[in-house]
Write a structure and sequence with these properties.
Blueprint: H1 5-17, H2 20-27, H3 31-45, E1 50-53, E2 56-59, H4 61-86, E3 92-98, H5 100-105, H6 107-117, E4 121-127, H7 130-138, E5 144-148, E6 156-171, H8 184-189, E7 191-195, H9 200-209, E8 217-222, H10 225-234, E9 237-242, H11 243-251, E10 255-257, E11 266-274, H12 281-297
Parallel strand pairs: 3-4, 3-5, 7-8, 7-9
Antiparallel strand pairs: 1-2, 5-11, 6-9, 6-10, 6-11
Helix pairs in contact: 1-2, 1-3, 1-4, 2-3, 6-12
Keywords: DNA-binding, Transcription, Transcription regulation
GO molecular function, one term: DNA-binding transcription factor activity
InterPro entries: LysR_HTH_N (IPR000847), LysR_subst-bd (IPR005119), WH-like_DNA-bd_sf (IPR036388), WH_DNA-bd_sf (IPR036390)
């Protein structure tokens, strides 16, 4: 094997930061040392890994092919080093990204549980909508994701974590709040604020109303659930949000759950990862702990 882990590390850093100088700063190397490592790797492989566009370094087709393989190799090397250094089989770092509902209501307890029981396992954590979680996995930015709803991309494997459901909510002062049941026609007449396109919640809602509701008066679309909750509570809007995100507002009387018999919007929260990645004991451990934790703490959801 002619190439070195150092050369692959420099390659990955340049791919991430877009320049040799930024990669050198990140790795605490001189720029000349980083340039030399990258040049040696390209010479050994016999292919250009980057297209030079001014000061920017953009991955070539060969670089795009190499990057996921190099990243997995570097992650495996790090896990080997840290595992032996700590004499711990459960050690190292896992990159996790979750959509908003799971990030707010489930992931904090999961990370706390991992910290208590597996202190050598570090979880780096990001929050994105479902579409961006999938994109991040495809680009090897994350090793594990949590999404709302489903993913039909055949590059992605998934495993259901838990079931959830969406509810249609209004303010307590909204005219519909006093009704025993709300019709589809009344939903079509209302003004709505919803999650943005690409969000798992929005995908599930759009799928549920397809063929039932011809059009909605969508007044605003926002990424952040607290903004939507506040708009509904203080105005005459409707929204469709995860039960986990509105349960406290329902208990406080700030929001009212509308009874729409024609709509029963069930969904699941699922773990997702790339199909082509090798077995990962840290990923498997996190999934197992998450399922155990949910079973203990959310029996009645």
């Amino acid at each position: 094997m002619r190439y070195s882990l150092k050369q692959l590390t420099v390659f990955e850093a340049v791919a991430t930061h877009g320049s040799v100088s930024a990669a050198a700063d990140k790795l605490a190397l001189t720029q000349s040392a980083a340039s030399m490592s990258l040049a040696q790797l390209e010479k050994l492989l016999g292919k250009p890994l980057f297209d030079r566009r001014g000061k920017r370094m953009v991955l070539s087709q060969w670089g795009l092919w190499l990057r996921p393989k190099a990243k997995q190799l570097l992650l495996d090397a790090m896990q080997i080093e840290e595992g032996f250094a700590e004499q711990q089989l459960v050690s190292g770092e896992l990159q996790l990204c979750a959509s908003q509902t799971a990030a707010e209501h489930l992931i904090p307890d999961l990370i706390s549980n991992i910290d208590n029981n597996f202190p050598q396992l570090r979880i780096s954590f990001s929050v994105e909508n479902t579409a961006e979680v999938i994109n991040g996995l495809i680009n090897y930015d994350y090793q594990l994701g949590v999404i709302e709803g489903r993913c039909d991309d055949d590059r992605i494997a998934h495993q259901v974590w838990c079931n959830d459901h969406l509810v249609i909510v209004a303010a307590a002062h909204h005219p519909y709040a006093k009704l025993e049941r709300v019709s589809i026609a009344q939903l079509e007449q209302a003004r709505w604020v919803l999650r943005e396109q690409g969000a798992g919640t929005r995908r599930v809602f759009d799928s549920a109303i397809q063929g039932t509701i011809d059009s909605l008066k969508v007044h605003r679309e926002y990424e952040h659930v607290p903004v939507l909750r506040s708009l509904v509570a203080n105005n005459s809007y409707l929204s469709c949000l995860p039960y986990l995100d509105v349960i406290k507002a329902l208990e406080l009387g700030e929001l009212v759950r509308l009874n729409v018999p024609e709509l029963n919007i069930e969904r699941s929260l699922s773990f997702v990862w790339r199909n082509d990645t090798p077995e990962n004991p840290l990923r498997d451990l996190v999934i197992t702990e998450a399922k155990r934790m949910f079973k203990v703490h959310h029996r009645d959801m």
